[in-house]
Amino acid sequence: MQEKPIHESRQGQKDPSDTGTDVFIVLVAEDSRTTRRLTRLAVEKIFSGVRILEAGTGVQAVELYRQFHPELILMDLQMPEMDGFEAARIIRSETKTKTEIRILALSASAASEERERCYEAGMNGYLAKPVSPHDLEDATYGLHSGSIEHKALSETESGKTAAKDESRSLLEKAHNHLNAQGVDKEVAGQILKSTREVLPGLLKAFEHSLRASDFSDLASASHSIRGNMLTLGLNCIAEPAAKIEECCRTVVSEPPSEKDTLYRRIETNAGEIRRLLTALITQLGGW
After folding, report:
1. For residue 41, what pLDDT is reported?
2. Eight-state DSSP code of residue 4
3. Where exactly are the structural domains of the chain?
4. Which of 53, 105, 106, 107 is exposed most, by the fewest CB atoms within 10 A?
């Protein structure tokens, strides 16, 4: 039996008639009730004064978008009737700009090809399921509407790592760095726009060379990432990229006993780059 679209207030009371424009609205499109609930809890942990809409299919997601115009959509990729890719394409075709509404994909897959399809469909970013409050916080950095505010998560409640602290404000750090370098606002905007355009391709090349164990191409991709991140003052990404580049230069000539250590070092730093770059791409997508 097909689920009907649900509109719920933050307190969980159904309120389909309330369409006040001063309320921050989030649409969760996911066919699994359990995953919808977990995603809802993550949203409520991050945002205050939020109203959450729920859809069980892509068709319902499009209907609820047209009726309520949410500012944030969390879109599952595999749903009945219409998948998340098609729903996102339809919604994006009806928005004036990509920043008007932020669409974040939800998926259990980590395949880079799937992430690329998300960007091609007009989504701003990508979140792994189950959605954690910290990943959601990273992906929605700078997203405000009226009185809506991100909740402050305590260290005890969040259990976040130092790396998570770094990734919370990547875009803010880039802005601050460019300002400190005396770059005027217009030029800074051009730099960030250029970065937004090239990063998905750089990440795709990085992932491809990593999967293929092509250390020459991986070194080149890491070098490009490092250069772009240094321009923005994001050493938290530039440094692991430099470490991978160094490993790639030496792994071929190292004895077998040392290669395993280098492989592990590459994988560790690649995980950092993947996570932080994905957060930055998402933040730039909403900028």
Report:
1. 86
2. P
3. 6-160, 170-285
4. 107
Residue 271 has pLDDT above 80, yes or no: yes
In contact, 32 and 11? CB cutoff 8 Å: no
Q: Is the model's pLDDT at 255 over the cut of 80?
A: no
Instruction: For helices 170-180 and 185-211, give the axis angle rounded to 10 degrees.
Output: 130
Amino acid at residue number 56: G
**pLDDT of 266 above 60:** yes
Helices (H), the chain: 33-46, 58-68, 84-93, 112-120, 133-139, 155-158, 162-168, 170-180, 185-211, 215-231, 235-251, 256-285
Between the CA of residue 79 and those of 3, 56, 88, 109, 239, what are the distances in Å? 12, 7, 12, 14, 39
pLDDT for 22: 62
Rounded to an integer, what distance in angstroms lies between the CA atom of residue 113 and that of residue 64? 28
What is the distance between the alpha carbons of residues 280 and 218, in angstroms, rounded to a whole number?
20
Statement: 170-285 belongs to CATH 2.40.50: no
Q: Which CATH superfamily is domain 6-160 in?
A: Response regulator (3.40.50.2300)
The residue count for the chain? 287
